Amino acid sequence: MEGLYGWVKNIVFYLIFLTVLMGLLPSGKYEKYIRLFAGMILILIVASPFLSGIRLEDKMAGYFEEFSFQNDAQDLKKEIYGMEEKRLSMLISQYEEAVAVDVRQMAEESGLAVTDVGVEIEGASHQNILAKSWA
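Below the sequence we write its predicted structure tokens.
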């Protein structure tokens, strides 16, 4: 009997809250959406004793956790991909600097006067590496 009183009390409090809320909000283009959402919540409150028997709350919580986990995993994949791109860019930059130093040393050992050396690597594989040097 206590469960029935609690159920009715929840419905009455929700309806009072909804009446106060609708009185405070200005009527406008969003009123029908608020009423739709409020109606859905009222249906869940009214059906809660019946739904608790089939453990719908547990199922909904499980689905929510699964959905949240999938979103977090996608965000993490994007973050990891971005970090990998940044790491690869830094690695290529450091490699360009090292090759520039080697080219400078080779040119100086050959007796050339070197004023400036710049190396630019284009491409992702070793077959497509193009080293440009300016001497």
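Residues 2-92 form one domain.
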